[in-house]
Amino acid sequence: MRFLSACAAALACVGSAASAESTGVEQFGAAMKVARWTGPMLASTAETLPQGHFYTEPYFFDVIVNGDHHPGSSGFYQYGLLDNLTVGVQPAFATDTNRLGRGVAIGDFKLLSQLRLTHFTPERRVPTIALVVNEVIPTGKFDRLGPRQEGHGSGAFATEVGVNVQHWFLLKNGRLLRTRLNVLQRFYRGTGVDGRSVYGTDAAFRGHARPGSRTTLIGAVEYSLTKEWVLALDVEADFNGPTRVAGQETSGGPIVRTRSPASRSIGFAPAVEYNWSPSTGALFGVWIVPKGHNAPASVTPAIAISKFW
Length: 309
Hints:
The protein has one helix and 18 strands. It starts with a helix and ends with a strand.
């Protein structure tokens, strides 16, 4: 009898555990269906779009450095090529002389691709992980600049590789906490430089430049406050290698070689998301970067509109 009682008790425990697990899955699934998100200001998702669907998220911002304003626009325009493969483009635009109404300049564009390896579900709560391979296209003007003209590109092609991770947590109050981690490494190739440029050369210079490699680490957390409202926070660290420039004046003279120092900075971006439908939302945030090692301080207020098609 004791044996039978023990078996019955064990089966009851297994049944209770299975029931609790089933309830947890249902609660997690229900919370994920209700919550709406645009995503935080800086960190990218590890998810991919369903095949045949589009996603658009234009950004409008103003980079403020030492009191100078640098308004511009960027964003993400993506397409689900396969359920686990998303491709897209990230354009960049800015005012030509950092003043509104004085013309618009094109910055460097980035071609995007992301391959999803794992997928989080309420039943299988493993982090979503994706591999990222991007290519920077030097479409922005960077040399032969006028006396008051600002450069908005590097002039160099670059390949960017990395990993995006996303995970969800169901809190005791039934609301969701979503976290993201991005690790990116960018490798630049060299470019010719002619005249006044973003590399600090003057009008008579002719030569070439090679920007330093760039490492970016971004961590983000989002809290689903209500169905429509989300609080978000990003922390980003950037590490830039030294840039090398070599050349000489067109009138002759010795060859000049310079090597800019490496730089690093850490910034944070609090934001508020409002989603008025499951497919449309807006983000209001500000990216604050204190003065770093060979990097100036900056403040960048921004607004973004996201739309799933």
